[in-house]
Structures are given as structure tokens and as C-alpha cells.
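sry for the spam today, last one i promise. C-alpha cells for design, 301 residues
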């Protein structure tokens, strides 16, 4: 049985076409409101506690809490939310997998996330995690960055340099060792323990900061972008406000996930065994059957 998309139900093709045209040109769309701030703050209170209970977490007692949409119902609901999925479909087509969710916390005093780009998510250690099996004219991966808390200029809002997604400034295939002492205070060069500077194709190149857009977001909003588009975030210069980003990553069903990994991957110094991993089919059908598939969680959670 296929999950019928909201766009298909509404026959809302012009909105979808506008989304796609804007995205193709700029490399991002949004922000959009998915939940009101009061609603998301109640959700966050529950999710925080549920994250601590790792009995059903597929990577066991792993500090990163990747892919907790596979066992936490509220996260599964966000990943498969019709207003998110409909827009993801406008960009990636009808058949959609969520292949990864991850957390981007910024505590008071935390450094910026340096400018970076990605697509197949080699992510510093190893091999491409994503391998498309069909030709794609445009993007074949999309991140939906969900704000669990407000993210304002002084609390590490996201920033993007539009229209940079057609040029590679970084080589994501290079392996870079994990160094927990990164980011180095004051350098702004860090990426949660990896030195993204080492991936620069031209070491002299500097992004044109004057073109950067800063996206201040309320809790419950999302920004959607291709990771190929230069993106990062500001430092959290507030005294007492944590900013919590929940990055949801989607691909169309033709993309093979972890096909070059034999049973596990390593990231941020942790091992992620893949024996319980599955990609979540949030829209359409999976006629390719490249990946082990699961469905959004049912029940009340
Ligand atoms: O939240 C951040 O600081 C960075 C997020 C990011 O790079 C991503 O979602 O790919
Ligand atoms: Fe990123």
C-alpha cells in the first residue's frame, strides 16, 4: 500500500512547482511553520526524557542519538508530518525515504558551525553513505532542519549562502580524523570535533559572507536545504538558552543507503552498528527495494 501524498490529495501542483523552482535556483526553501511554539515546547519536554531511554534505540547506548525517529513516536510523527513530506516530495519526487535523523545542540557559549557542504555524507570517516542508482537532474538529498527551540541571531541560527549548491568548495570524500578538542575556541573552524578546513578544495578560498542569509526561526519551524548549499550556524552567545536543532535527512527511494558499509560505521568517535537500521518510507512506494525499509511508528507513543 502506498502512502498518498498531501500534495496529490490537494491537487496542489502549482505550490509544489513554485517550491521546486525556488529550491533549484537557491538551494533552500523556508522557513515554514509546522507546529506552534507552545506545542513544540510540550513535545520537546517529552522527547528529552524519551531520548534518555535507549532500550529500543537501534544504536544502543550511543551518545549521538542518531535515528531516534525509529523508536520515539513524536520524532517519527515529525519525520512523516504531511506538511513536511509534501514539500520534500515537491523537490525529491513522490517516493521518499528518511535515511537519517540527528541532533545539533548549541549550548550557551558554543562556537559557530563552520561553513560546509555535503551530499553523499562521507562525513569525514570512510565511504559515501548515499549512492544514487538513477540519474538526477537536480538534488537527490534534502535536509529538513527542525527547530525544537527558538534559534535566533544570538542563539545559533542557521545561515546559508544561496545559489552555492552547484559548485563544490569542499571535497567531502576526504577522510579527516575526529578530534574531540575541535572546535578550537575562537577559530570558528570547527564542526563538532572535525576540522572542515581540511576539506577545502582551494585552501585559500573564503566564502563570501556578504551573501549569507541568516534564518532566525521559532520553535516548530523548519528550513529545508540541500547540504550541497553552503550552510552553517552562528555561535550561541546567549547566557542561558540552549538551541536544539533536529536535522531530518531525506532521499528518493532509488538511493542506496550504507551499501558500501559492512555492518557498521564510525562517526564522532562512536561505532554505529547497522544490524537494526532501516530507512523509513514516509511517502510513495519503494519499487527499487535497495534498502531495508520501515514505516512511520503507529500508536500513541
Ligand atoms: O545546526 C547546525 O549548527 C548545523 C546543521 C547542519 O549542518 C546540518 O543540518 O546539516
Ligand atoms: Fe550540515
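last one done:
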Amino acid at each position: 500500500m502506498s502512502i498518498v501524498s498531501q500534495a496529490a490529495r490537494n491537487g496542489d501542483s502549482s505550490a509544489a512547482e513554485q517550491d521546486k523552482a525556488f529550491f533549484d535556483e537557491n538551494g533552500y526553501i523556508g522557513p515554514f511553520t509546522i507546529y506552534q511554539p507552545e506545542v513544540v515546547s510540550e513535545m520537546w519536554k517529552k522527547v528529552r526524557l524519551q531520548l534518555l531511554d535507549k532500550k529500543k534505540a537501534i544504536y544502543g547506548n550511543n551518545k549521538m542519538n542518531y535515528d531516534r525517529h525509529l523508536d520515539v513516536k513524536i520524532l517519527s510523527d515529525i519525520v512523516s508530518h504531511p506538511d513536511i513530506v509534501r514539500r520534500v516530495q515537491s523537490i525529491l519526487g513522490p517516493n521518499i525515504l528518511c535515511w537519517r535523523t540527528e541532533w545539533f545542540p548549541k549550548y550557551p557559549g558554543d562556537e559557530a558551525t563552520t561553513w560546509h557542504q555535503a551530499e553523499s555524507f562521507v562525513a569525514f570517516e570512510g565511504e559515501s553513505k548515499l549512492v544514487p542508482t538513477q540519474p538526477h537532474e537536480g538534488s537527490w538529498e534534502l535536509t529538513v532542519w527542525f527547530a525544537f527551540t527558538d534559534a535566533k541571531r544570538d542563539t545559533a541560527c542557521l545561515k546559508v549562502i544561496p545559489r552555492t549548491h552547484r559548485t563544490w568548495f569542499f571535497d567531502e570524500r576526504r577522510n579527516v580524523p575526529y578530534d574531540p578538542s575541535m572546535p578550537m575556541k575562537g577559530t570558528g573552524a570547527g564542526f563538532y570535533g572535525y576540522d572542515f578546513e581540511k576539506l577545502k578544495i582551494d585552501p585559500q578560498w573564503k566564502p563570501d559572507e556578504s551573501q549569507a542569509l541568516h534564518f532566525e526561526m521559532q520553535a516548530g519551524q523548519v528550513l529545508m536545504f540541500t547540504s550541497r548549499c553552503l550552510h552553517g550556524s552562528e555561535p550561541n552567545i546567549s547566557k542561558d538558552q540552549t538551541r536544539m536543532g533536529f536535522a531530518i535527512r531525506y532521499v528518493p527511494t532509488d538511493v542506496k543507503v550504507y551499501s558500501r558499509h559492512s555492518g557498521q560505521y564510525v562517526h564522532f568517535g562512536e561505532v554505529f552498528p547497522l544490524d537494526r537500521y532501516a530507512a523509513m518510507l514516509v511517502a510513495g512506494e519503494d519499487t527499487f527495494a535497495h534498502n531495508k525499509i520501515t514505516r512511520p511508528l503507529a500508536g500513541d507513543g
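The first helix runs from residue 6 to 10. ok im logging off now
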